[in-house]
């Protein structure tokens, strides 16, 4: 007879299995994304949450195209496979203009854009570093990108086109 501990004892195997699955996933992710750290983040109100595997040393783009300039959109780019939306799909809305290739997603409730799909890398995500939770970023290097002359800037830039590739 377990008496008052019966419920806890019966729930134990399920809780232990969930912990084991979580630890195994973290171990597998750490192996798959060697040299990267798991950053988490989201919008201001918390309706949108995500995780992204990226370097602890971030290479940020400061674009001066018409929308990035107005939003002060600074971001780093990762392949879609390294990004996971944890919650808030129903809280996200999208704005597009001009070529409609960039998908400017933001929270319907608080208006914060914590990530988006950049025109330069439609197979990836641009992540707003200021929307990351504290504790996983070691350093930040910021590079200006001349998005106001987008086609020329893309031709001249050596690496930006491939940042969403594995």
UniProtKB/TrEMBL annotation:
Q: What SUPFAM superfamilies does the record tag this protein with?
A: Mss4-like (SSF51316)
Chain's gene name: CENPV
The yes or no answer to whether the keyword Hydrolase is present is: no
KW Protein biosynthesis (keyword) present: no
Q: Mind telling me which Pfam families this protein's record contains?
A: GFA
What does the protein in this record do?
A: Required for distribution of pericentromeric heterochromatin in interphase nuclei and for centromere formation and organization, chromosome alignment and cytokinesis.
Q: Which UniProt keywords apply?
A: Cell cycle, Cell division, Centromere, Chromosome, Cytoplasm, Cytoskeleton, Kinetochore, Metal-binding, Methylation, Mitosis, Nucleus, Phosphoprotein, Zinc
Give the UniProt family note: Belongs to the Gfa family.
Specify the taxonomic lineage: Eukaryota, Metazoa, Chordata, Craniata, Vertebrata
Instruction: Report the principal subcellular site.
Output: nucleus
- The protein depicted here goes by the name Centromere protein V
Pinpoint the CENP-V/GFA domain residues.
Answer: 39-151
Species: Cavia porcellus
Can you quote a single GO CC term?
cytosol
BP-aspect Gene Ontology terms: ameboidal-type cell migration; cell division; pericentric heterochromatin formation; positive regulation of cytokinesis; regulation of chromosome organization
The record's subcellular location field reads: Chromosome, Centromere, Kinetochore; Cytoplasm, Cytoskeleton, Spindle; Nucleus
Q: Which InterPro entries match?
A: CENP-V-like, CENP-V/GFA, Mss4-like_sf
Q: Which GO terms describe its molecular function?
A: carbon-sulfur lyase activity; metal ion binding
